[in-house]
Description:
single chain; mainly alpha
Amino acid sequence: xxxxILKIAGANAAGQxxxxxxxxxLTRLYAPDSFGAQAAFITYTSLFSAFATLSLNQxxxxxxxxxxxxGLVIATYVSIISVTLLLFILLLALPASxxxxxxxxxxxxxxxxxxxxxxxxxxxxxxxxxxxxxxFALISLHYLTSSISISAFRLAGGMxxxxxxxxxxxxILGVIASIIPFLGRRLRPPSLISRICIIPRAVWGYRxxxxxxxPQTFINMFSVGFPILFINSNYGSDDAGxxxxxxxxxxxxxxxxxxxxxSVIMASMTDxxxxxxxxxxxxxxxxxxxxxLAFPPxxxxxxxxxxxxxxxxxxxxIDAGLFAQAIGxxxxxxxxxxxxxxxxxxxxxxxxxxxYEVLSVFIKLLLCIFSELYDLTAFQFVLALSLTSSFxxxxxIAFSMLDAKGSPN
Length: 409
């Protein structure tokens, strides 16, 4: 299992190394408001992708029978195409001024959103299928290709025309490139009659993913992404850009193991659950290991990030370093809670996860109101948000351990 984690983490490390090298150049090419607009665009892409896939891509690894997986895949693609078309029609119908206020970009650029959702959703489907086949090397290549492609396209585009449109367009190109490693895969389909019969039965068997996991995933992504929208509307696009860069740089140490841990532990916990074993020991073990591995880099972030950001990205980005300091605690505990979230998913506790996300968003929205009432600065708001999020992550870890301590499903 550790070899699989290191395999995927190694690919992430290589990709993130490219990101680190390119980032100081990008911050000197693109303005902070471009980073903020791109972050909002990516947030919307993730939100609509969650609806497009109906979270069925997360069920592929759990389903025992291959023919049912095929039904889930067909249903997922039908949903992806439907959501993409509806989103395109909606954007065409909405007034340009409304799109600028909500999305943060002009209508022409916003029309790229359905394309982004389409290819991002396809990538999620392919990762789910590869995970089912224990194709960790393929997943590693996907993550590596994604990191390198997005960085390379942004750099090349920025040298030609460093605008918000360029950042968004190059992001989409990077997502498309990340799908290339999966092109050689083939899913053996059953007969035509079997396909028609499989789809409703397969989807009904995972209706909790559709009706509970999808809203939970959506709310989780909204919870992560809404601070950028709030900061942009209340403190300005520059602060949104600083926050965006801080979040992306905090993802460097986390991304080295986070995606790898989630992928490998999902497969491992599924096997444990099928054998009737309690998941409590594996949650405890991996949470402890992750906490120990993540502590040194996050400690360095907390101590030196303002100085490092100022030197590496330019003096005008020192505020991004201050935001990174504030975000450090929540990023650390978000990293640690990966095994807990995976365990609740494997144990089909979708309702619990949904309730947790609703509670989390509600508390954070109260924090936004508090920020408005007491006129907090952008830094004070981000710090309060980080401390609140840290408490919620610790609560979820403790709850997952107690839940797994009970009898297996």
